[in-house]
Specification:
410 residues, alpha/beta, Rossmann fold, Helicase, Ruva Protein, domain 3, 3 domains, five-stranded parallel sheet, 18 helices, elongated, binds adenosine-5'-triphosphate, binds magnesium ion
């Protein structure tokens, strides 16, 4: 049957992966997958009997185009794929087309000249396609982020043991039959450090940190949302390793649809992406929520998430450690830390940081305007604490305790 030639669409992706895997060109998948959804890449496919049987891909940079791969079941289909690709590349402004082809390839009849050239190859980075990473806003996180998380010793130790170590020491984990964690949920009140924990994990593993924002997906029209989510995860999976952070996951996975920010089809699609993430060897999905009790219980089940981890209000020792971190940055004056710890019972780490920075600002302004030359003192910190509006209430602390009992899985 004569194949029909069409323009590539994201829906072809699974078939394209299958085709590239079966192509016998070992690097085809690695080379082509990351560029498929790139704006400058153009792809045509060949379909016969409803099946994808071939493809040709090329990229245009100004007036120059590069053909990055042609795969087809027979000479005739290859010929027609090349023809269609040439037309597409020319339409995009290409005036010269370069093809890097194996020795067997015959392009002679198409007006191509064989150029004396050598083919060089260099693998640039271990962390996969830079362009997918950049497009996703992926970032490298310094290991310092983990060390700068002060106080929350219990949460830190659990995450260190259950999440970071098995991923950082895969051989040892395998030896003991310890499964690698693939997906976790962090829950707790605002400002307790959930985002910072997720970043800290990425920093410790040396994996890029990629944030997927449900609100951004929800901002799209209903019919675009599910597609955008799938495209985002396709790109995420094209990166070799990553901590993928989904903040405010209740917007995607609340049990009541009124509490979600996206179309029901997106919630289903998100559920379908979790097994894909679980199959990827160097990806960790970290979801965060302030509203764990709103999440669909099916969403939280063990097959999807390995751990459901509480990140709670800081106790007195944690507040002391957090205060000391910021105080040591801000001042060399003697500060009554006990008084600050006692006065900040309803403060989250974020509230403490804010109060500490306010005290620093006060000392800075004093020196600038009044020429009083000392750094922040206890009274500056106390004044900032008194002015602050702490996030927590006794009810929130109680709710968190209750939620930890009901939902935590560590
Ligand atoms: N244990 C900690 N020690 C020192 N600073 C901390 C700690 N936890 C959080 N912070 C600081 O508090 C701020 C808020 O933390 P973060 O954004 O991680 O909280 P969150 O739980 O994600 O909040 P939200 O629910 O609002 O998203 C950050 O600037 C972070 O550096
Ligand atoms: Mg956060």
């Amino acid at each position: 049957m004569r194949a029909s030639i069409k323009l590539y669409e994201p829906g072809y992706l699974p078939a394209v992966i299958g085709l590239l895997q079966a192509s016998g060109d070992e690097q085809a998948l690695e080379r082509l997958l990351p560029v498929l959804s790139e704006k400058s890449t153009f792809v045509v496919v060949a379909e016969a009997d409803g099946k994808l049987v071939g493809l040709a891909a090329g990229a245009v940079v100004a007036s120059t185009a590069w053909v990055s791969g042609v795969f087809g079941p027979d000479d005739e289909t290859v010929e027609r794929l090349v023809e269609a690709l040439e037309a597409t590349l020319a339409e995009q402004g290409a005036a010269r087309i370069f093809v890097v082809a194996g020795n067997g390839a015959t392009l002679d009849g198409r007006g191509y000249e064989r150029v004396e050239a050598a083919l060089f190859e260099r693998a640039i980075s271990k962390v996969g396609s830079q362009s997918s990473l950049e497009r996703l806003g992926g970032r490298t996180i310094e290991t310092r982020v983990w060390d700068d998380l002060r106080g929350m010793d219990e949460a830190k130790e659990i995450i260190e043991r259950r999440v970071i170590l098995p991923l950082a020491e895969p051989d040892l984990a395998r030896r003991h039959g310890v499964a690698q964690p693939k997906a976790i949920v962090l829950f707790g009140p605002p400002g307790t450090g959930k985002t910072t924990f997720a970043k800290g994990i990425a920093g410790r593993l040396g994996w890029p940190f990629i944030e997927v924002a449900p609100a951004e997906i929800g901002a799209e029209g209903a019919e675009r949302q599910a597609k955008l989510l799938v495209e985002t995860f396709d790109q995420v999976l094209a990166v070799t390793a990553a901590v993928v952070f989904v903040d405010e996951v209740e917007d995607l996975a609340s049990v009541r649809s009124e509490d979600r920010r996206v179309n029901p089809s997106v919630t289903n699609e998100f559920m379908k992406q979790i097994p894909r993430m679980r199959d990827a060897p160097h990806h960790l999905l970290a979801c965060a929520t302030n509203w764990v009790s709103r999440l669909d219980p099916a969403f939280l089940r063990p097959g999807r998430f390995d751990y459901v981890l509480p990140v709670g209000p800081p106790g007195a020792d944690a507040r002391r450690a957090i205060w000391l971190r910021y105080i040591s940055e801000i001042t060399d004056e003697q500060v009554d830390v006990d008084a600050l710890v006692a006065a900040t019972e309803l403060f989250t780490p974020a509230d403490i940081e804010w109060a500490a920075r306010t005290a620093a600002q006060r000392a800075f302004e004093r020196e600038h305007f009044d020429a009083v030359g000392h750094r922040a003192k206890t009274e500056d910190f106390m004044a900032a604490v008194e002015n602050a509006k702490p996030t927590l209430t006794p009810e929130m602390i109680e709710t968190f305790r209750d939620e930890t009992e009901r939902f935590a899985r560590v």
